[in-house]
């Protein structure tokens, strides 16, 4: 029996974004008041798990402000430092910075970017996102097992698209998808259960389900 670990990929909380900008990797988009409430809820969720004998051993997050603000309450509650993990960053997107994206896409200058939804042609290829997230997951789980032994748990705050395509890959599903179909709500937890052969199974939960119902739904945000 080889070592095992669980890496929990948590999507960040709601962002303060009154202009409904597709913010992508842009700086300066922090959590809304609702998002801060979500971050507290996630912290409470993992603290309760620890009290039930399932402690978290390591924390990591995307360098973007919304991810760092989401993990901060958990870091404070657990007294654990946060590793900045560039490989779980939001996907690159040519439409970054636009508001009312659906309306903007009617403009001919953007049409060449839309030729191949399977790749996708407007942003970072799905396979590339999966590869970098999995590389981060492997390094973090290896480190957690080395430091804390079998059954080590890691929480990583990331972004919807990289988390979702990694889950699709882990479940042997096609990476191409309709963005509206993503099961990855704000501060949801997509847990990768790691065994000797890599990712062996995936589980999903929404501890902040009631709060996420109040959120402003923006695909990909």
From TrEMBL:
Pfam families: His_Phos_1
Domain of life: Bacteria
InterPro entries found in the cross-reference section: His_Pase_superF_clade-1, His_PPase_superfam, PGM_Phosphatase
Protein name per Swiss-Prot or TrEMBL: Histidine phosphatase family protein
Source species of the chain: Nesterenkonia rhizosphaerae
